[in-house]
Amino acid sequence: MSALWLVKRPQSMAWPSPGPSEPPVRAWNAVQQDVSYRYLQTLPRWVPSDPHSTVHALQSIQSLAGCAAHQVAGYHYVVETDVQPDMEAEFNAWYEQEHLPGLAAVPGTVRAARYQQEGGQPRYLACYDLAHAEVLNSPAWLAVRATPWSERVRPAFCNTLRTLFRRAP
User: Fold this and answer.
1) What is the mean pLDDT of residues 135-147?
2) Who is most buried in 73, 96, 130, 161, counting CB within 10 A?
């Protein structure tokens, strides 16, 4: 799978304008926090020296088109977490076999993907592009979160951060 750069920066800080040769980025602003995420295929020159940004190298683990793949994602939900070492194999099997495919199949999910952060924490990111924020509280979404396997794996999460983002203008 392919590598990706995640650049995190306070939402209250303006982002430098991209150069003419820089590819477009996927840009998201947190709904309830002062943070913006930008996903980049290549790292612009200004990023490493910017004191307001943190850079994270992500390795793609899994990516699935969602039930609403034909729709535009207005929201991006990210679950960043570590997992207890003795549960890591089951955690990854659960995500690969049940959880990510289940959430990708929920109406309103445009895309579901997992990444592993290289050398940082939390180590794992699950990212869901959503047509609308209400998907997170839909009966179908909640049903996928409430399976017996989910109930067994979720207590092994640690350093978990859940953030809902809105597409940046």
Assistant:
1) 98
2) 130
